Amino acid sequence: MEQKTIQIAGSITVDELSKALGLSVTELIGTLFKNGIVATINQRLDFETASIIIDELGLKNVKLEKKNTSTKTSDYRRELSDKATVRPPVVAVMGHVDHGKTTLLDTLLHKKTVEKEAGGITQHISAYQLKHNDRLITFLDTPGHEAFAAIRQHGAMLTDIVVIVVAADDGVKPQTVEAINFAKSANAKIIVAINKIDREGADIQRTMADLSQHGLQPEEWGGDIVMVPISAKQNQNLDKLLDMILLTADIEELKADIDIPAEGLVIESHMEVGKGSVVNLLVTGGELKTGEFVVAGSTYGKVRTMLDWKGKPKGKATPSTPVTITGFKDLPNFGDRFIEAKDEKTARKMALLNAQAAADESADANVTSSDLLRMMNVADNTKTFNVIVKGDVLGSVTSVVDSLRLIDTKGEITLNIVSTGVGDINENDVYMAADENTIIYGFNISVPINISKMAARDGVKIRTFRVIYELLDDAKHEMENLLDAEIVEEDKGELKVLGVFRTEKTSIIAGGEVLKGDVKPTYLARVIRDKKYLGEAEVTSVQKEKMDVDNLVAGETGGLALSTKSKIELQIGDRLQFFTREAKKRTL
Ligand code: GDP
Question: Is the CB of 189 under 6 A from ligand 1?
Answer without folding.
Answer: no
